[in-house]
Amino acid sequence: MGHNFYDVPLHFKNSTNGSVFSFSTTFIFAIVPKHADIGSNGMAFVISPSNNFQAALPDGYLGLLNDVNMGNSSNHIVAVELDTFQDLEFKDIDDNHVGININILESIISAHAGYFHAGKNGTIKYLNLKSGDPMQVWAEYNGVNKQFNVTLYPIDVPKPDLPLLSLTLDLTSHA
């Protein structure tokens, strides 16, 4: 288990009215498991007011939470999980999914890993997160519309028009 945080804190809120700014970030990753058929707890892109997770538990807790602070609104944790293990305790849909989590490891919304191919009416093409293949993730928030989108796709295709996950969510109390 490891953490990697940006050194300089980013300010997500407008100091005048407290609203959350729009943001967009992207990263490329590859999960290469020791044993091809056995997943682990994956990884997460996390927005948090602190990078101190000393009390957090490893494994299913992704090094973010523990059994005491799970679900506390004071956590202010927003995570996009790329999960390769079905943890029934957290109601995971399968062992190969993407989810949006707020202060808890049970996803508010999740979907089997994949992307929408060929435009807005395209069909979904499923991906194997533990394939070892590089994939790209976009996490985007529209502060005006309160829309949080997550798009996952292989690096050899253009960014799909339709995100894998789309959630109307006001991050004001979470950021």
From TrEMBL:
Gene3D superfamilies: 2.60.120.200. One of its GO terms (molecular function) is carbohydrate binding. Pfam families: Lectin_legB (PF00139). Keywords: Lectin. It comes from the Eukaryota. InterPro entries: ConA-like_dom_sf, Lectin_legB_Mn/Ca_BS, Legume_lectin_dom, Leguminous_Lectin. Residues 1-173 form the Legume lectin domain. Belongs to the leguminous lectin family. PANTHER family: CONCANAVALIN A-LIKE LECTIN FAMILY PROTEIN (PTHR32401), OS07G0133000 PROTEIN (PTHR32401:SF50). This is Legume lectin domain-containing protein. It comes from Camellia sinensis.
